[in-house]
Amino acid sequence: MPITGPEVDDWIDEMSVLATRFVAGFEAAYGYPPGENHVSRASGGSGGELLAGALGDASASELRTFFSRVARVSLPDVGSGFFVHPVEHVVEGLRGVNQPTRVVSTDDREIVVFGSDGGGALFAADRRTGEIVRLGDGALLGEVFKVDEAEVQVIAQDLGGFLRFLHGELLRHMPAGP
Fold first, then answer.
1. Which residue of 32, 49, 113, 159 has the fewest CB atoms within a 10 Å radius of its CB?
2. What is the distance between the terminal CA atoms of the chain, rounded to a whole angstrom?
């Protein structure tokens, strides 16, 4: 079942509380100050409309719902880092600017790149299946990302699963309390 706006709102609230707690205990646990770890709420829902205009079809409806509520996710200190890009970058990617729109491996996928990790991997939604994949080392040739199948990892069956994945990663890396 597709993720709803209220579910995204609840996720933002929970992640914001957890990110604040994460930052508060970070320096004591790791010995250096944290970067900016936060989830930013979108204002006015225009991000979803901007993405809908770029997509031009019914695919990736969960991403439209997500970007109507979320402006950005920046968790540089959680594991190797997790980032959901601003919708403007996602739209540029759909137009073929610095991001692939298709993955060529064992299976070809039409994708929407919406995030990355601190190790250079990309997070993308498969426009046909809705799966969220992590794209590791490969070659960007225009709008096509050529990659070995081993470098295409399904992170979640849908965007809701990916949001639960991020939530779990933040909890897993939470500094121990006093």
1. 32
2. 40
pTM of the model: 0.92
Q: Using alpha carbons, list the distances in angstroms from residue 131 to 105, 109, 112, 142.
A: 16, 10, 11, 23
92/78 Cα distance (integer angstroms): 26
Q: Which position has the token pair 């597709």?
A: 2
| Cβ atoms within 10 Å of 157's Cβ, excluding its own | 12
Dihedral angle sign, alpha carbons of residues 1, 9, 69, 8: negative
- b/e per residue, 101-112, with b = 16+ CB within 10 A? bbbebeeebbbb
DSSP string, 69-138: HEEEEEETTSTT-EEE--HHHHHHHHTTSSS-SEEESSSEEEEEEEEEETTS-EEEEETTT--EEEE-S-
Amino acid 59: pLDDT: 64
Pairing relationship of beta strands 82-84 and 102-104 according to DSSP bridges: unpaired
